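Protein: Glyoxalase/fosfomycin resistance/dioxygenase domain-containing protein
Species: Flavobacterium nitrogenifigens
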Amino acid sequence: MKTKIFLNLAVKDLNRAVSFYNGLGFSTNPKFTNEKGACLVIDENIFVMILAEEFYQTFTKKQICDSTTTSEAIIAISVDTREQVDEMMEKAIKSGGTDYNQTNDYGWMYQRTFLDVDGHHWEVFFMDENQIPENI
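Structure follows.
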């Protein structure tokens, strides 16, 4: 069995978060979705579990951070082209996300950043591994 990644994120409004991620083009897996949380499919082995804060809290003894003011993680996702980076950014903004940082274009890597509707930090990038300089 291939390793699968399930990224778990606390959200304030589950329906709003589902709409945001569906707007990015991520489908919802109904098998792992109910009124407490939803499973969004990024790829066949990569998933985002968005969990209502009350339900998320049952998995940890730690306090849930306010992701609108505190950095909990930077989630980076690669795409196949520079154009797809821009397309994902357009979808994120149209779905209620925020364009968070300046665009970085290193020639061999093109990167843009958005915050989702709960303030989670996402970076979308295209990287041409054949063009990576020897001394980064």
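Remarks: Residues 72-136 form a domain with the 2,3-Dihydroxybiphenyl 1,2-Dioxygenase; domain 1 fold (CATH 3.10.180.10).
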